[in-house]
């Protein structure tokens, strides 16, 4: 492997991630699957999830090669039944015996990192590109430290450590992904996470100041009309401002961090990544998606999802090394040797959605 | 290649990323041959049971998945294997047929509505009788303890007043056929609750001093409220509310769990409103229980209307705000409750012998 790295650099090629899903096409899949899921009291939702993922994976292509979603509906159903049982027992327990419910919440907190590991491993192993599967190698101990211990500790530093914890979480989630027997190398640095948080704080302060000044100007221009209606307008304005701030911060964080993370991630001898998200277009995308979903009572959801996926694909490109053409799937060999059932025991994604 | 159908596409060997432009040929006996394009070199060969057709997804080619992990993918995304059994086409057909999509647009909200408002309450009611008594006792005791520590203060009612009401309470318990025997009436002072009464699942009923004060010259009205609270316990409303809220939470989680973060806020508000709707239905049931029990005790349901009228007067309810806040409220509008009680009272009058 080492010897083959040097002479092939000039043969590397640029590839754009392409998404060819259509809103109209996905609308049919979505609404029919929802109806079937309701009529079967949720059982069919496992089949619906598989079909939906197959649609989105199959329409996502790099160099004309689609991704494939390999999970079987019964695997999804199993994970959902476990999730429903967990959720229902917690819900009932906290209603019937609040103290026992609190204890169970504590137990679930310790279970959470384990569920994240399972979920990541499942979704990676169920993803294939060029007939080669992804895999996830993160340990429970590291998940416990990153998702539970450090976030709790960072409270005692008045969240000053939180950006560093977020950096560690991203590193944990991505550097443990492997493809074709090679691990992603992630070299993200905490500085960018701190910069993102500082920029968000500055922008949010600016937006709030502008809103307050604007409010005073309006109050000054129409001093006579203060009344009950104005209180309603004020409350409405504050809710609107809150949402705007939430979406703006989300957009800034997602754009800065995704761009940074992709530029610092390499699959050795195979691929490097680039993400070119921009805050204002992405903010417009999320805001208009939400408004469309609201105004159509949810019917615009397929359109919004296709649109968002297309945007993210469009913002993502790769530099591929010729090694990508001769990869061998290690997951497949492993599981075949391990025996189908044993490998399947913990191949489960315990989640409701 | 005889009369067999040849399909152009790409082939990948098990677990390998190398891509071969290839042609797949399915013979009449179902056996598969894959040839490399141009060279006609045989890449792969297997019997009918060693491969299967992948699921049909609108807009995507249908792959042949080989048991050992190889893949053949047709180049034409709209190509469908004629050999694939018809029932595998059903899902994709429903998802792309205009008529079925249109019916789903209409039926899905309707089915969701029926699931949440009819099927789930019915299931909850069917399940609740199987809940052991210990569970409702535990639930009642823990809640009562928490309330005593927080919003309830000792009563300042005189002993005669309390004894008078306890007598009324005992009369109610003795003259009604109740399925449960853990009923207990307590008095507390509470600035948080104001003039109010509530019931816990174990049969503990609490009345506030302010309520007794408000209705002190109307013993029948007080009785009507006590009967309403007994109705909550008799019909196991607490347990049903838990079961129904759980059902609603699961429905929202499964169907809308992957919706975008902010729509979740709205869904949260939706499930809150739904829970209030459940609660309003249960209040109506408890009201109904109070009317029939009043009649059983030889009193007119008018007493309940009287109690409600005093509430309305005290709160200065205006009809308009009630309309607006209807969906945010855990109780039906007071005017509606008075009207219902008066209807029950009229029925009661008609059955009485003319004096």
The helix-and-strand class of chain B reads alpha+beta
Kindly report how far apart the N and C termini of chain A lie: 41 Å
Q: Characterize the main sheet of chain A.
A: 11 strands, antiparallel
Give the helix tally of chain B: 11
The run of helices and strands of chain A is: EHHEEHHEEHHEEEHHEEHHEHH
Beta-strand share of residues of chain A: 5-15%
Query: What's the gyration radius of chain A in Å?
Result: 24 Å
The Rg value of chain B, from CA coordinates, equals 33 Å
Structural class of chain A: alpha+beta
Total count of strands of chain A: 11
Poorly predicted runs of chain B are 318-324
Rounded mean pLDDT of chain A is 88
Shape designation of chain B: elongated
Organism (chain A): Alkalimonas mucilaginosa
InterPro entries (chain A): DUF898
Keywords (chain A): Membrane, Transmembrane, Transmembrane helix
Protein name (chain A): YjgN family protein
Describe the SSE topology:
The complex is a heterodimer of chains A (353) and B (355).
Chain A: E1 13-19, H1 23-39, H2 45-58, E2 60-62, E3 65-69, H3 73-96, H4 98-125, E4 127-129, E5 132-136, H5 140-155, H6 162-175, E6 177-179, E7 182-183, E8 185-186, H7 190-221, H8 228-263, E9 265-267, E10 271-275, H9 279-295, H10 301-314, E11 316-320, H11 330-338, H12 340-345
Antiparallel strand pairs in A: 1-2, 1-11, 2-3, 3-4, 4-5, 5-6, 6-7, 8-9, 9-10, 10-11
Helix pairs in contact in A: 1-2, 1-10, 2-3, 3-4, 4-5, 5-6, 6-7, 7-8, 8-9, 9-10
Chain B: E1 5-12, E2 19-26, E3 32-36, E4 42-46, E5 51-53, E6 64-66, E7 71-74, H1 90-96, H2 98-127, H3 133-150, E8 153-154, H4 159-175, E9 184-189, E10 197-199, E11 204-208, H5 209-214, H6 219-234, H7 237-256, H8 261-296, H9 302-315, H10 319-324, H11 334-351
Parallel strand pairs in B: 9-11
Antiparallel strand pairs in B: 1-2, 1-7, 2-3, 3-4, 5-6, 6-7, 8-9, 10-11
Helix pairs in contact in B: 2-7, 4-6, 6-8, 6-9, 7-8, 8-11, 9-11
């Amino acid at each position: 492997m080492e010897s083959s790295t040097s002479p092939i650099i000039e043969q590397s090629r640029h590839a754009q991630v392409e998404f060819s899903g259509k809103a109209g096409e996905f609308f049919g899949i979505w609404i029919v699957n929802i109806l079937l899921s309701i009529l079967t009291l949720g059982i069919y939702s496992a089949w619906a999830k598989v079909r939906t993922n197959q649609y989105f994976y199959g329409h996502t292509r790099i160099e004309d090669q689609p991704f494939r979603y390999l999970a079987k509906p019964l695997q999804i159903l199993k994970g959902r039944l476990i999730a429903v049982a967990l959720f229902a027992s917690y819900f009932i327990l906290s209603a019937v015996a609040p103290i026992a419910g609190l204890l169970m919440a504590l137990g679930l907190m310790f279970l959470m990192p384990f569920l994240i590991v399972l979920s990541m491993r499942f979704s990676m192993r169920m993803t294939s590109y060029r007939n080669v599967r992804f895999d996830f190698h993160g340990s429970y101990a590291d998940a416990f430290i990153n998702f539970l211990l450090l976030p709790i500790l960072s409270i005692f530093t008045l969240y000053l450590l939180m950006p560093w914890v977020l950096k560690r979480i991203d590193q944990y989630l991505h550097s443990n992904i492997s493809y074709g027997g090679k691990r992603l190398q992630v070299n993200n640095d905490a500085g960018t996470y701190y910069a993102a948080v500082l920029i968000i704080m500055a922008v949010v302060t600016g937006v709030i100041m502008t809103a307050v000044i604007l409010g005073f100007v309006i109050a000054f221009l129409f001093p006579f009309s203060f009344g009950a209606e104005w209180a309603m307008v004020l409350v409405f304005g504050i809710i609107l401002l809150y949402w705007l701030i939430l979406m703006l911060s989300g957009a800034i964080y997602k754009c800065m961090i995704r761009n940074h993370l992709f530029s610092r991630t390499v699959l050795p001898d195979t691929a490097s990544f680039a993400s070119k998200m921009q805050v204002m277009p992405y903010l417009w995308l999320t805001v208009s998606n939400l408004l469309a979903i609201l105004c159509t009572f949810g019917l615009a959801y397929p359109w919004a999802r296709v649109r968002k996926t297309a945007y993210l694909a469009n913002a993502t490109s790769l530099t591929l090394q010729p090694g990508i053409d001769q990869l061998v799937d290690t997951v497949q060999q492993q599981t075949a040797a391990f025996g189908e059932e044993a490998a399947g025991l913990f191949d489960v994604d315990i989640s409701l959605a | 290649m005889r009369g067999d159908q040849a399909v152009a596409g790409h082939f990948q060997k098990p677990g390998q990323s190398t891509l071969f432009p290839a042609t797949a040929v399915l013979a009449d006996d179902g056996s598969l041959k894959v040839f490399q394009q141009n060279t006609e070199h045989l890449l792969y060969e297997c019997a009918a049971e060693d491969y299967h057709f992948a699921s049909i997804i609108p807009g995507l080619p249908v792959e042949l998945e080989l048991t050992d992990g190889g893949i053949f993918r047709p180049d034409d995304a709209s190509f469908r294997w004629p050999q694939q059994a018809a029932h595998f086409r059903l899902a994709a057909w429903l998802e792309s047929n205009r008529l079925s999509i249109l019916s789903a647009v209409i039926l899905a909200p309707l089915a969701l509505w029926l699931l949440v408002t009819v099927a789930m309450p019915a299931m909850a009611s069917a399940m609740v009788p199987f809940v052991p008594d210990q569970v409702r006792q535990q639930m009642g005791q823990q809640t009562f303890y928490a309330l005593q520590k927080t919003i309830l203060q000792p009563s300042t009612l005189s002993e005669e007043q309390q004894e008078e009401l306890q007598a009324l309470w005992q009369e109610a318990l003795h003259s009604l056929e109740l399925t449960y025997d853990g009923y207990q009436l307590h008095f507390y002072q509470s600035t948080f609750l104001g003039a109010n009464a509530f019931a816990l699942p174990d049969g503990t009923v609490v009345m506030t001093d302010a309520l007794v004060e408000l209705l002190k010259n109307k013993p029948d009205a007080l009785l009507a409220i006590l009967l309403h609270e007994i109705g909550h316990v008799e019909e196991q409303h607490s347990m049903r509310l838990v079961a129904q809220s759980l059902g609603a939470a699961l429905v929202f989680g499964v169907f809308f769990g992957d919706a975008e973060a902010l729509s979740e806020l709205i869904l949260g508000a939706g499930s809150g409103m739904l829970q209030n709707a459940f609660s309003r239905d249960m209040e109506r049931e408890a009201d109904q229980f109070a009317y029939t029990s009043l009649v059983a005790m030889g009193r007119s349901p008018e007493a309940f209307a009287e109690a409600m009228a005093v509430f309305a007067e005290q709160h200065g309810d205006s009809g308009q705000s009630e309309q607006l806040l209807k969906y945010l409220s855990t109780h039906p509008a007071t005017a509606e409750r008075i009207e219902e009680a008066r209807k029950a009272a009229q029925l009661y009058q008609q059955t009485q012998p003319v004096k």
